[in-house]
Amino acid sequence: MNNTKSILWFKDFNSKNILINETVVRIRAGLLILVPIFLSYTLYNAVFCGNWIVDTNTLHDTMETDFNERIIYSAEVVHKIKDWSIQTYVLLFILFEMLIGMSKYLSFLSPTIWLSTLLSRGKQPVWKPLIPKRYAWSIGASFITVCLIFFNPDIFAYYVNIIFGKELLSQSKQYISFYIPITLIWICFGFMWMETVLGFCAGCYLHSLLVKVGILKDECIECGDIESYDAKKAKEDYYKNLNNK
Fold this sequence. Notes:
Layout: H1 2-6, E1 19-21, H2 22-32, H3 34-48, E2 52-65, E3 71-79, H4 85-101, H5 111-119, E4 127-129, H6 130-151, H7 153-164, H8 179-198, H9 202-212, H10 226-244
Helix pairs in contact: 2-5, 2-8, 3-8, 4-6, 6-8, 6-9
């Protein structure tokens, strides 16, 4: 099993301070960036596009006009019921991806990690600590949870009532404003874009700031200087071999 896991994004699976391949992380972020794009289109379509369907086959002139001398037509009009099943399944899958990516023992269950590792073959690995990434993915998981509640307020209210043993919330009410999930979705898009294109992890940077002010404990050894250490060591070995020839 360890041999299977070691071919993923880990530098040394058995090491106490786990390092993962930043190249794979960036490819994975590029794959997952499709999710906020899809969700933003969904919310835009739900809010700004019409919820009514007019059956043009039933459209006919009533031979009447309104007070503004406009002709009144009659037709069968159907109100569209919003079905968030696909969005819910997508969000549950991404939540699953965020959570299992934090564990070195469960990462092998992630399809996107396997695919990203395959796509990174032949590319130079860049080793970064896993702990700040866990913090970044925790932020992503919290965003996803809020969006799940927005798309499924009835299920959220149902389980809240079950947990507390009484009806605290109505299952016919929306508890989260549209502007909250759309804002979180675009924040996620921005974070993923910076990770993929710029190689900048906003969650990791926030983690480092919290470590500096003492709110979090930095459990990573040489977190901020891993790349420079590897580069320096490789250069020393190169010149040593060159001088020995």
